[in-house]
Every structure is written in structure tokens, then in C-alpha cells.
């Protein structure tokens, strides 16, 4: 009794009929295909691996294969980047192993690249065989060499079999077996026809019996699709109303449009398993679809494999490896501790961490223990050489210590990832007695993470996202095909970077058959053709006209099927978020939705934001709170009054709303830290010289001594390369100290860093004078500046920060409070960078100071603190409140009289 090849173009019904005869062992590539013919799922791959196992042959474990492959690449090519080269070449070598049962060929006329690749594949294969195993690429060839008992088999869904698959099918199929290889008399099926010819030569018989097939939507489309391009019929298909093609603006709109239709179907009690979403590149579409499906409350499953590294668990391990390698730096460790699989510290912890800025294992261990109750001790002493199994044991304990199994259990994908990792670690622990340094083990762990994979969005039930290839042979009543744009479906076919089409052609002459350009084109087209067959009731195509701001053209397949692209149907509101978005712009409907507190709040916030962005005058959300501030008991510093006079909101946010940033340890030499340090050094130096006139202000050793003392006194942080950078600062200060202006002849410092308090223009004020010199002409009050420019003052009537306040206060308040009755000759700024007095410009509008102070009073009396910085926005340069005031271009729309109104 012969074996049969069914070549009928629409095989599902026939296969289902045959499969109902329980005498067959049914083989299908996917669960979806087995469901379509009501059979148990068993893929060809499983039959081959099982047969090989029964004969004592084992497939190399992924890490073992990778190790041997890298060794072979090193021996054959000696590349500069071994890991990268091996990673790039592995797929091509695997394709070579799949393409031929025997790679022993004469490679004389091949390019060097092709010759190297063949040599690589041969030596890799030999190395595996020497170790008693084989690569997964040669699975079917090795299985086909076995002595197996053939069984009566039905093979459905392998409509474009490779040669190695055919060899194994031929081996395992007993008499009366049947394989479904649909063909048609067009060039598209030429490779399938070759497969049929191959089997016929092996004694299989073709049976082209057609059975009466229900004219489902997909089949009708298939018929149109196969017609020559010129003869595409204009008349609409019988099932026209069940076939649609839509153009959306963006991928987001397309995803929302498709998922809204899916939700409508589910609401109409269509079972989720009857609906499929198809995208040629699942990885590109899945993230947006998964996010939107979550918003819509839709169960969506994406079953394609994604590397374990892309999971939360993989990310946690990657971050931990970086932290261990870098010795617990602040940023990376903070990121690790904030990871969802880690301790989830609160803002209190971060306030402590920022103020202490821990670096290194010991500091982090202390702060984590004290503030999080988290013991990091397990992470100590990683730079060691240990037995392989001890390393693995160390990781197992680490996973336990941090309760990773439990934390991963919150997500289906993470749970699968955790189990996959556990399995992988078992593989990694062999051979147990081998000793590895941390660097070697780390590399192997990274390799493992790269090799392991998990389904992108696993779970039970739900609507599935698939690629065309993964639904071959399946059946769905409703199919949504996304991404029907040129270059996406079908994808453009381009040369492989490892073996181009010319080299593939040369290899074909030697019996190594890799896919040519035309075969790839046929493969893609047939995948789409089989995708059409999956739809029994309704099929909807869609694409987005814009992708990354580039225009996309509709797929040529749409024209080939004679479909008109239409406007998408009006989208129903499919989620609470969409409903809220809709009502935000329809305030008249608010009342009906008043019961939604989120919406009520959102509408309020939206209105506030609209007003803030408009030309309307500022309101209470923009600083006009209208609550008078009783400043009679408030003590103002110079900087407070300056802030009030530069941008009232800056003072309001800081002092009334108390939104100032939390204390954070310096990690760089900020202007304020540098200012503190310079002030301290100069004060210590002047004091020392005054106490001992034998000392010289310009003695470099004395300066160094006082510089180090100042660092200790202000608790100067550890800055990168500070030992070297300190020398620059010492040089700068020495140059300044040598300038005669720093300590003029005849001047005698009588006060250093002296505080003052007093009443001025109705304000209680306080401040500090850096130095007061007594000179023959009177007192000189000095304020040191580390900048080389004059400080910014209050706004003048032109909105410029040019009214100086500080020196005026020195003259009016400080001098009379500290040295009553003494003559004041000058109050001045001295630059510790330039070594000179910074003089106020003669054009400085000091006469406007009373007016500016009156404006400050008015702001306080009325409770008006508008966001009104100076015209050049110098006030914003070192302001912490930018995220709160949301200044930006909106301020140009607001009326502004620079506080003079
Ligand atoms: S960022 Fe500018 S506008 Fe905003 S509060 Fe600060 S100074 Fe005012």
C-alpha cells in the first residue's frame, strides 16, 4: 500500500476528515494547526528528538554548542571579536547544517568567505560528533539515518517542507501515511512541486482529490490571490462585506482600531480562540498591542520567544552583574535597588541615599541594612575563583535570599523566566569540579541569559498574536492582519550579510541548498497565502500610513486581492482611559460623569493647564494665590529678597510652598561647593596671617595647609581625581592672593564672615559680610565671589536683573550695626577667580531699587507671585522650580510689566 501526497489547494477539511480516523499518528507544526483538524498536537521536531534519544543520541545543550562553536571560530578565523563573530556566524552555519546531510564538498571555486563558512561548519560538526552529540541544525538529517519503525502518519501544516524535514518525513511514514502538500500550477509553488517530486521518487503517490470545500472568506481571497496580476477581477467577492482593508494614521491608531474591533467581537460572545491578530513582525507590533490591550482589559497572548534578558528577571540580573563589576557605584546600585524585583524603596530612603551618596559595597550595605532592612552581605566577595557548582550554588542562594521566585510569581512571564533560569543554572553547573574565575563565570552566565528565551506574553486563553508562519494550517473565524504596508508585508528581500545570493548560488552547485532570492520571495508569498486560508468568517487588513514620520504605502498584496482601502470605522470608546480622554474635551458632558473622581480631577487639571498655556492672566495655579503674606515677622536674607525681585514665584515656591530640593551630597564641584571651599580657605588664611604676621599670605605651603584644613571643616566630599584637580585650585588661589587688590596696603581686616541683622525698608533682614577692612579713609565691606561676573540683582523696569541689593544692604544695615558711627568708604564685590574688584556699572539703575522693593512688598501684601522671570531668564539658570512653574514659551503669551504694574 503506497503512501500518499494530497496536493489539493485547500487541505483543512480533508485533513480533518482523515484525522478523525484515529489510526493515524498526526503531526502538525503548531497547536493552532492541530486544533483546526481536531487532533492532538505533536510537531515533527518532537518525533525526531524522541527517536534520536531512543537511539542514545543527544542534541548538544545550548551552552555546550556555543562553547564548541566559539572554539571552532577561534581556530578557523582567529577573529578580533570572538563573541561577536561567533554570534553573527552561528545562524548561517546552522542553515548550512540544515541544508545538506553531508557538507563534504569541494570548495575550490568558492569565495574565501563561503569557504571559511563551510570549513567552520565542517569542523564544528566534527567537534560535536567527537563529543558524542550533534547540533540542532542537523536534527532531521541525523534522525533520518536511524533505523526506526515507521508508523501510519498524517502530516498537516508543513506545506513548505525543507529537504531535511522531507528526509525525516519519508523515514517515519509507514504505508497509508498521508502528507498534505498543496500545489497549484503557478510558479509560486515550484519549490513545493520539487518536494512532491522528491517524495514521488521515494514511492509516494499523489492524490489530488478535491473535496467539496465550503467557500470561506479566506478561500475566496486565496483564489483571487493566485490569479495572474493582470486578471484580478473587479467584481466584489461573494463574502465582500466580511473582508475589509483600512488605513490608519499611526501604529497607535491601528492598534487601537484593531483591538476595539476585537473587544466588540468578544462582547458579542465570539470566543477568544476564534480570533487572531497577525503581524509579520510580531516583535515590532507586540509592545504597542500588549499595552493597549491592557488598557482595554483585553486578554492578549503573544507567544513568540523573547530572550530572557528582556524580562524583568533578566534585567535584574544584568543590573546586578554591572553593579558587582563596577564595585557598587551610586547610580547603578540605586537603579538596582529600585528595580521592581528588588526592595522598592520609598522616598524616605532616597532622601537618605541622596544626602549620603553611598559608593562601594560597605557603604551600600550599611544604608540598605539600616533603612531598608535589606542584607546585601550575600553580594560580598565576588571576585574569586570557585568550582563551577559552587558558583551556581551561590546564585541559587542569591535568588532565594532576595525571594525572586515569589516576586516573579506576580507575572506569568517572569514566573516562566525564573523556571527557565533555574533549569539553565543546572546546565551551567556542569562539569561541577571545573574551577572558574568570576570573569569567566560571569561571561558564561551572560551567554546563558542570551540563550534562554520565554514567550513574550504567556498565559491561558485570550486572543493570540501570531506571525503568518505560525498560523499555517490553523483556522479562525475572525482574522486581523496588521502592518499591510509595502516593505513590511511582504518584507523586502535583501542579501544576507554572511552569505550573499551569489555565494548561495555557487553552494547550490555543490549540493548545499540555501534559499535563493526567488525562493525566499516564494516562501513569504506562500506564507501569506496560507494565512488567508485561516480566515473562515471575517478578515480585516490594516496598515498605518505613517511610521517614524515616514509615509508608508499599502502592501501590493491588497491590490492583488482586489481590495479597496477604506477609512477605518468610527472607533467605539474601548477603555475607561479613552472615555476620559473624550470627556476632557467635552466639558458640557462632565456632569454625567461626575461620579468618576479621576475624570473630575482630570477635567479640573486640564482646565488649569489650558488656562496656564493661554494668554489669560495668571490665576491661583500660576502664583496669584491672593493670600497676603505678613512679612513683619519674617526675616529675609539677601538672596530671598533677590529671588522675590527676580521672579516672585521662585520665592513663593521655595519659602511658602516649601518645594526646595532635598539635600543631596555633591558628586561634582558645583559652583556653591566651590564657593564654600574658597570662602573657607581665604578666611582661614587671613586669620592665620593676622594671628602671626611672620606668615605670608602668598606662601604656597601655608595656602596648601589651609586648603586642606578648609576641606576638613566643610566636610568636602570625595570627588573624582580631586588630588590632581586640587592643584589647579591652589594655583588659581595663589594667583589671586598675589594681586595687590586682595589685601591693599593700609587695609586691616577687622571682621571676617560676620553676620548682621537689622531693619531695612520695612523688612527684617539678615546677612553675612565676608570681610570688613579698616582703611585710612574708612571701612570697606567686601563680599567674595567665585564667579568672575557681578551677581544678578533685582529686575529693573526693563526686566533686566541689574539692580544690586547686596552692597546697598551692606552699606545701609551691616556697617551701622557692626561699626556704628564709622565711615563707610565702599562696599564691593571681590572675585576670587579674577583677583579683582567687580565694580557696579555706572549705568546700573540703582535709583530703581526703592521701586523694586515696593514691588516686592506689593507682591507679599496681595499674595501675588506670578511666574515672571527677567527677560533673559537669568533667574531660571539655577532655579529648582522649573518643573513646577512650567515657564517655557507660554510666558511670551502672558502680559508682563516686569513687576512695575
Ligand atoms: S524657573 Fe524661572 S520662571 Fe520658574 S520659578 Fe524659577 S525663576 Fe521663576
UniProtKB/TrEMBL annotation:
Q: Which InterPro entries match?
A: P-loop_NTPase (IPR027417), PDDEXK-like_dom_sf (IPR011604), PDDEXK_AddAB-type (IPR038726)
* UniProt xrefs under Pfam families: PDDEXK_1 (PF12705)
Q: State the UniProt keywords alphabetically.
A: ATP-binding, DNA damage, DNA repair, DNA-binding, Exonuclease, Helicase, Hydrolase, Nuclease, Nucleotide-binding
Domain of life of the organism encoding this protein: Bacteria
Biological processes per GO annotation: DNA recombination; DNA repair
Q: Which GO terms describe its molecular function?
A: ATP binding; DNA binding; exonuclease activity; helicase activity
| Domain annotation PD-(D/E)XK endonuclease-like: ranges | 635-886
PANTHER family reported in the protein's UniProt record: RECBCD ENZYME SUBUNIT RECC
Q: Know the name of this protein?
A: PD-(D/E)XK nuclease family protein
Amino acid at each position: 500500500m503506497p503512501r500518499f501526497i494530497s496536493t489539493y489547494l485547500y487541505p483543512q477539511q480533508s485533513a480533518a476528515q482523515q484525522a478523525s480516523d484515529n489510526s493515524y499518528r498526526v503531526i502538525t507544526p503548531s497547536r493552532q494547526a492541530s486544533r483546526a483538524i481536531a487532533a492532538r498536537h505533536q510537531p515533527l521536531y518532537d518525533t525526531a528528538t524522541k527517536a534520536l534519544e531512543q537511539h542514545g543520541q543527544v542534541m548538544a545543550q545550548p551552552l555546550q554548542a556555543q562553547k564548541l562553536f566559539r572554539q571552532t571560530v577561534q581556530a578557523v578565523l582567529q577573529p578580533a571579536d570572538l563573541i561577536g563573530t561567533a554570534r553573527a556566524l552561528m545562524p548561517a552555519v546552522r542553515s548550512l547544517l540544515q541544508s545538506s546531510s553531508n557538507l563534504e564538498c569541494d570548495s575550490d571555486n568558492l569565495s574565501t568567505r563561503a569557504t571559511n563558512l563551510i570549513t567552520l561548519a565542517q569542523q564544528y560538526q566534527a567537534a560535536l560528533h567527537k563529543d558524542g552529540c550533534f547540533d540542532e541544525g542537523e536534527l532531521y538529517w541525523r534522525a533520518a539515518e536511524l533505523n526506526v519503525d515507521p508508523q501510519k502518519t498524517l502530516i498537516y501544516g508543513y506545506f513548505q517542507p525543507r529537504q531535511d524535514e522531507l528526509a525525516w518525513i519519508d523515514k517515519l511514514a509507514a504505508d497509508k501515511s498521508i502528507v498534505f502538500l498543496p500545489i497549484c500550477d503557478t510558479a509560486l509553488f515550484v519549490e513545493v512541486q520539487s518536494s512532491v517530486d522528491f517524495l514521488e521518487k521515494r514511492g509516494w503517490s499523489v492524490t489530488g482529490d478535491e473535496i467539496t470545500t465550503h467557500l470561506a472568506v479566506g478561500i475566496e481571497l486565496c483564489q483571487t490571490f493566485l490569479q495572474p496580476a493582470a486578471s484580478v477581477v473587479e467584481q466584489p467577492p461573494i463574502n465582500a462585506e466580511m473582508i475589509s482593508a483600512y488605513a490608519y494614521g499611526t501604529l497607535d491608531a491601528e492598534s487601537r482600531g484593531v483591538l476595539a474591533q476585537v473587544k466588540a467581537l468578544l462582547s458579542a460572545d465570539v470566543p477568544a480562540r476564534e480570533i487572531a491578530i497577525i503581524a509579520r513582525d510580531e516583535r515590532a507590533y507586540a509592545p504597542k498591542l500588549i499595552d493597549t490591550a491592557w488598557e482595554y482589559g483585553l486578554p492578549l497572548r503573544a507567544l513568540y520567544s523573547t530572550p530572557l534578558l528582556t524580562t524583568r528577571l533578566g534585567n535584574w540580573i544584568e543590573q546586578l552583574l554591572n553593579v558587582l563589576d563596577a564595585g557598587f557605584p551610586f547610580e547603578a546600585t540605586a537603579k538596582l535597588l529600585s528595580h521592581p524585583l528588588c526592595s522598592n524603596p520609598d522616598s524616605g530612603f532616597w532622601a537618605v541615599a541622596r544626602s549620603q551618596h553611598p559608593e562601594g559595597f560597605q557603604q551600600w550595605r550599611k544604608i540598605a541594612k539600616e533603612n531598608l532592612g535589606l542584607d546585601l552581605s550575600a553580594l560580598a566577595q565576588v571576585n574569586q575563583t570557585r568550582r563551577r557548582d559552587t558558583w551556581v550554588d551561590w546564585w541559587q542562594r542569591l535568588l532565594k535570599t532576595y525571594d525572586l521566585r515569589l516576586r516573579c510569581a506576580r507575572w506569568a512571564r517572569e514566573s516562566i523566566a525564573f523556571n527557565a533560569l533555574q533549569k539553565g543554572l543546572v546546565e551551567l553547573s556542569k562539569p561541577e569540579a571545573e574551577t572558574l574565575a568570576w570573569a569567566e563565570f560571569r561571561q558564561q552566565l551572560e551567554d546563558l541569559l542570551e540563550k534562554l528565551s520565554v514567550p513574550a506574553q504567556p498565559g491561558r486563553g485570550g486572543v493570540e498574536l501570531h506571525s503568518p508562519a505560525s498560523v499555517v494550517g490553523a483556522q479562525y473565524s475572525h482574522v486581523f492582519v496588521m502592518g499591510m504596508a509595502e516593505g513590511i508585508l511582504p518584507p523586502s528581500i535583501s542579501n544576507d550579510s554572511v552569505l550573499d545570493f551569489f555565494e548561495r548560488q555557487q553552494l547550490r552547485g555543490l549540493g548545499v541548498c540555501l534559499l535563493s532570492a526567488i525562493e525566499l520571495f516564494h516562501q513569504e508569498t506562500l506564507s501569506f497565502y496560507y494565512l488567508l486560508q485561516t480566515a473562515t468568517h471575517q478578515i480585516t487588513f490594516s496598515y498605518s500610513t505613517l511610521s517614524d514620520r515616514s509615509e508608508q504605502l499599502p502592501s501590493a498584496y491588497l491590490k492583488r486581492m482586489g481590495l479597496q482601502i477604506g477609512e477605518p470605522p468610527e472607533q467605539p470608546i474601548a477603555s475607561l482611559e479613552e472615555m476620559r480622554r473624550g470627556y476632557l474635551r467635552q466639558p458640557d458632558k462632565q456632569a454625567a460623569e461626575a461620579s468618576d473622581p479621576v475624570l473630575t480631577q482630570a477635567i479640573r487639571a486640564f482646565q488649569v493647564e489650558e488656562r496656564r498655556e493661554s494668554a489669560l492672566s495668571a490665576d491661583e495655579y500660576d502664583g496669584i494665590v491672593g493670600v497676603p503674606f505678613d512679612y513683619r515677622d519674617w526675616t529675609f536674607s539677601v538672596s530671598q529678597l533677590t529671588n522675590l525681585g527676580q521672579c516672585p514665584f521662585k520665592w513663593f515656591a521655595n519659602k511658602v510652598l516649601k518645594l526646595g530640593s532635598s539635600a543631596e551630597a555633591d558628586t561634582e564641584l558645583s559652583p556653591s561647593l566651590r564657593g564654600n571651599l574658597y570662602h573657607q580657605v581665604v578666611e582661614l588664611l587671613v586669620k592665620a596671617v593676622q594671628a602671626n604676621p611672620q606668615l605670608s599670605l602668598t606662601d604656597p605651603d601655608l595656602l596648601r595647609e589651609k586648603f586642606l584644613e578648609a576641606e576638613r571643616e566643610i566636610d568636602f566630599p570625595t570627588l573624582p581625581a580631586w588630588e590632581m584637580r586640587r592643584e589647579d585650585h591652589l594655583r588659581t588661589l595663589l594667583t589671586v592672593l598675589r594681586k595687590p587688590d586682595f589685601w591693599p596696603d593700609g587695609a586691616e581686616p577687622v571682621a571676617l564672615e560676620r553676620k548682621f541683622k537689622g531693619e531695612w525698608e520695612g523688612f527684617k533682614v539678615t546677612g553675612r559680610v565676608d570681610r570688613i577692612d579698616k582703611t585710612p579713609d574708612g571701612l570697606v565691606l567686601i563680599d567674595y565671589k567665585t564667579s568672575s561676573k557681578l551677581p544678578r540683582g533685582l529686575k529693573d523696569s526693563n526686566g533686566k536683573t541689574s539692580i544690586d541689593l547686596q552692597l546697598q544692604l551692606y552699606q545701609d544695615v551691616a556697617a551701622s550695626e557692626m561699626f556704628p558711627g564709622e565711615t563707610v568708604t565702599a562696599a564691593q564685590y571681590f572675585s576670587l577667580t579674577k583677583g579683582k574688584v567687580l565694580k557696579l556699572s555706572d549705568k546700573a539703575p540703582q535709583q530703581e531699587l526703592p521701586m523694586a522693593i515696593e514691588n516686592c512688598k506689593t507682591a507679599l501684601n496681595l499674595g501675588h507671585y506670578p511666574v515672571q522671570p527677567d527677560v533673559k531668564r537669568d533667574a531660571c539658570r539655577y532655579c529648582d522650580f522649573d518643573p513646577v512653574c512650567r515657564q517655557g514659551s507660554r510666558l511670551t503669551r502672558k502680559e508682563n510689566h516686569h513687576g512695575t504694574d
